[in-house]
Specification:
6 helices; Rossmann fold; 7-stranded mixed sheet; alpha/beta; single chain
């Protein structure tokens, strides 16, 4: 009897200890999450005021989206603390997430309406797609490197962005099944604007695209479709990774 009682007592004490430990672990986790939220939230605000508003991007919807999207969750874990710096960062497979200012600049120049259908070429980390999704766009994003497309898809669905659709493929061909698009944003640089992208853009729609040779001077081109042609102008000298040729 005494043995049973002791067994009960031990089980009860162990249960209590376990309960207490779980409670402590859960609270510690929550405290850590709050700390992270505050720390990265503060870095994000600073990034927006210094790098973006400070350089003349004033579109309130773009600023709001950039303040909201957790950029650090789109970069590899080891570089999270650099995620809000004023530079592009490696995301694996020789590719980069663009500098925050460039993302803001391109988004503001594209100026998409909420609920517009936007084609992105070069999903990369999925960060640019998330910013467009925050603006209320339906985003169709094409990425040529399968592993990057998959990771971006996971990040975006973990964060609840159900209005981003990703396809593995060669962006030179656009995404004909989902065309026409209200706007097109290209985040890798071809030497010439791919004709399929012009075909898949609606009349009056906007295209923003870096154009030029890798290592050479590239220009960010902002264009509008008029008839079958583009009316375009260069808006910023830039440096982007190349838009590589896919299999025919
Ligand atoms: N928008 C991305 C950054 C893209 S970096 C972000 O927010 O993180 C450019 C991306 O374009 C790379 O991921 C690269 O693999 C992709 N890319 C290069 N050539 C391509 C092509 N022909 N078609 C589709 N994607 C391409």
């Amino acid at each position: 009897m005494a043995k049973r009682k002791r067994f009960f007592h031990d089980t009860f004490t162990h249960g209590l200890t376990l309960f207490f430990l779980i409670f402590v672990m859960l609270s510690a986790d929550r405290i850590q999450a709050d700390d992270e939220k505050d720390e990265f939230g503060a870095m994000r605000k600073h990034m927006v005021s210094r790098q973006i508003e400070g350089r003349g991007v004033t579109d309130p919807a773009v600023l709001k989206a950039m303040k909201k999207v957790p950029r650090h969750l789109f970069v590899p874990i080891k570089s999270r603390r650099y995620a809000y710096g004023d530079y592009p960062l490696p995301i694996g497979k020789g590719q980069t997430i663009s500098q925050p200012y460039i993302v803001a600049f391109m988004t503001a120049a594209l100026n998409p309406e909420p609920r517009s259908r936007v084609l992105e070429i070069g999903t990369g980390s999925g960060y640019q797609a998330a910013i467009l999704a925050e603006l209320g766009c339906d985003v169709y994003s094409v990425e040529i490197i399968g592993a990057l497309a998959e990771r971006a898809g996971e990040t975006l669905s973990r964060l609840g962005y159900s209005n981003v659709h990703i396809k593995i493929g060669d962006g030179h061909k656009g995404w004909s099944e989902e065309a026409p698009f209200d706007a097109i944003i290209v985040t890798c640089a071809p030497e010439k604007i791919p004709p399929a992208l012009i075909r898949q853009l609606k009349e009056g729609g906007r295209l923003i695209i870096p154009v030029g040779k890798t290592g050479g001077v590239q220009q960010m081109v902002l264009a509008r479709k008029k008839g079958d042609r583009l009316v375009s102008r260069s808006v910023l000298p830039v440096r982007f990774v190349p838009m590589v040729e896919g299999p025919p």
